[in-house]
Amino acid sequence: MPHSEQLQAFISSAQQRVNHALEKYLQTMPCPDPKLGEAMHYSLTGDGKRVRPILVYAAGKATNGVDQCLDIPACAVEMVHAFSLIHDDLPAMDDDDLRRGRATCHRAFDEATAILAGDALQTMAFEILSNADSALSSEQRLKMIAQLSIATGARGMTGGQAIDLAAVGSNLTLEQLETMHGLKTGALIRASVVLGGLCNPEITAAELEMLDSYAQCVGLCFQIQDDILDVIGDTETLGKPQGSDQERDKPTYPAILGLEAAKQLAQEQHDQAISYIAHLGDRADTLRQIADYIIERDN
């Protein structure tokens, strides 16, 4: 089976697995307010790529993680991601009308419900990670909560979003842009990979460092490719408005470097990511293929 077919089979399996687990959590942890529950379901079960849960499963595979533990962090990172998208799309933030090919949460419902849906999904992520009935040990759960907390808060994507909002219409240096995206996009991608590794209670500090370094490069590559697609993609394929970053005068890699140099930087980050997991051997092949997919994707 060619690598592309192997990866597609893995991605499809991971997507189905996390989608099933997300539905289970929504059903077993029902919301007492029907409208809020519907908004949470709408935002969490939309037609997303599930990149972050896929990274959890791939990192677990690469480091011999306990299989039955992987669904918990996979769902947690997707809940946090969904929360961030809901809030980022709000009129007070990026003011977007389209997400994942359909109306954003505040357009499908209303702003107040969207804010509450985001809040509820964020806290649900930590609720499932802290569940003492899970197959994870107390030590594993505590480490995962710490990682995801940092990735979500002021030192992670929330801080990155604040920098992003302040940067509209301004001229950032390449270093400032990398810092912003390392927080806004990269922090949760890094947490996803590390949480997958933590599903092996015997994982070494060196292995975790390899995973984190890989994820740091992959996260940057992911954002650069997003910026490139905002220039060369189309709205139907992207599932969100093409050219929205340019329209809002947001700093991007193509805007600072030019399109070709941005593509070159994405390739360099991809190659560096691959180098960091060389010592993990064949079991990390899926992580390598995911790095290929991220730089080659068109949405």
What does this structure look like?
This protein is mainly α. The chain has a single domain, classed as Farnesyl Diphosphate Synthase (Orthogonal Bundle). It is built from 15 helices and two strands. The protein has a two-stranded antiparallel sheet.
Short recap of the structure:
This protein has 299 residues and is mostly helical. It is 71% helix and 1% strand.
SSE blueprint:
Elements: H1 3-28, H2 34-44, H3 51-62, H4 71-88, E1 98-99, E2 102-103, H5 105-108, H6 111-129, H7 138-152, H8 157-167, H9 174-197, H10 205-232, H11 235-238, H12 244-247, H13 253-257, H14 259-276, H15 285-296
Antiparallel strand pairs: 1-2
Helix pairs in contact: 1-4, 2-6, 3-4, 3-9, 3-15, 4-6, 4-9, 7-9, 8-9, 9-10, 10-14, 10-15, 14-15
What structural class do you assign from the helix and strand content? mainly alpha
From the spread of the alpha carbons, the general shape counts as globular
Instruction: Provide the domain count.
Output: 1
Give the SSE string: HHHHEEHHHHHHHHHHH
Oligomer: single chain
Low-confidence stretches: none
| Overall CATH class | Mainly Alpha
CATH topology: Farnesyl Diphosphate Synthase
* Rounded average pLDDT: 91
CATH superfamily: Farnesyl Diphosphate Synthase
β-strand percent reads: under 5%
* Distance linking N and C termini: 24 Å
